[in-house]
Amino acid sequence: MQAILLLTVSLCLAAGSLAKEPHPCKSPPLLEGSLALAILKEKTFGVERFAYNAFDERVHVRVLLDIDNKTIYSDTLILYKEGIAFEIFRHNQTCKKVPFKDHWKPVEIPKDAKFQSQVIIGSFSAPGDGLLVNNWSGEVAESPVKYLITFTEFGCLPVHGWYDMPDQTLLSMSFYDIVIGVEDPDIFIPPSFCDKVELNSDRETTSLFDALMRSL
Amino acid sequence: MQAILLLTVSLCLAAGSLAKEPHPCKSPPLLEGSLALAILKEKTFGVERFAYNAFDERVHVRVLLDIDNKTIYSDTLILYKEGIAFEIFRHNQTCKKVPFKDHWKPVEIPKDAKFQSQVIIGSFSAPGDGLLVNNWSGEVAESPVKYLITFTEFGCLPVHGWYDMPDQTLLSMSFYDIVIGVEDPDIFIPPSFCDKVELNSDRETTSLFDALMRSL
């Protein structure tokens, strides 16, 4: 896993400002934000707006992807506790409702992640010029996906993730414009035009990534 | 150029905090720092410690690269004004001195770069949790290399660069631990064991990237 090496070797050179090794942390339970997504092998790029509710175990994501120069939009609401994902098509007020079988994954540093380094994005030479972050590496439980993730030291907010998939695909996720809290709690409630939609049991979605890909 | 799309489409979704479009800026003339380098097609990863002196037009870089699971180290001092690059081998106190024919490239947002978006890495919901940055895109002068670069709003420090090379290679550079100023000015002076080395005119280096690759 070469991506992991990226930060492993950085320990040799980085002028790290580490005083005490940080502990794995958990992000605040209510978040909104954006992320820039790049699936590098397939040259797929996109952006995502997400809303995250760890109390009710719900995630709402709107994705705009560029695949082979074709732009694709999706709007997905996942209710982990209920085991249901809604694919929402607001332009014609329709909905698909599919079983969702993954367990809840909070935004956090996994307990078995390995601390790699503490660095400053930018600089602490002047106020407002820098951000203190921690780099962690590990392997996703029950899968051969290896990751290298960067979270802020204060606030425990996601900054960046590299995911090395089994088929050699490298996935990059850059987070930005995160807000702690959720402005509109209704974002976690399926829209009324989804109420009478039957569950399509022919399809089953087993992960957030799968849900996003399947809804395209 | 799909990488450029990454931020272009983000304008559609990003909850940007843009008040007034920023102007291209130039970094402070003396800098030290690190960067994590990834050449994605070739699965080459590495880290670099750099010192930068825009007054004398000198750059000193120490690179640790992982190519095909082989780790390679290089130490290069480039004197742009003099048109010379030194490849330094401290372990046996030897040196190579080669002509260097590139023109000086300051760390800055090129004047013809296109402003893409202003975003926060992390969050402004709590103090110390976020960093305000600007994304710019463009094409390197006299080459078909397209770029997408991120610099801090305050201080004009490099944060990240995507470079889309002509052969479809995607180069990612993540900067960190930047210090404004240079602790040891001697870092820009060739070590004494380089004094009597003859210029090897058989080899000519035409860019910083070329210098780094050739010195491996």
The largest inter-chain interface, given as chain pair and residues per side, is:
A-B, 60 and 60 residues
Range of helix content of chain A:
under 10%
Instruction: Count the domains of chain A.
Output: 1
Biggest β-sheet of chain A, characterized?
11 strands, antiparallel
Helical segment count of chain A:
2
Overall outline of chain A: globular
Order of strands in the sheet with most strands of chain A: 6-5-4-3-2-1-11-10-9-8-7
From the structure provided, what is the oligomeric state, counting identical versus distinct chains?
Answer: homodimer
**Overall pLDDT of chain A, averaged?**
85
Radius of gyration of chain A: 18 Å
GO molecular function, one term (chains A, B): calcium ion binding
InterPro entries (chains A, B): Ependymin (IPR001299)
Protein name (chains A, B): Ependymin
GO biological process, one term (chains A, B): cell-matrix adhesion
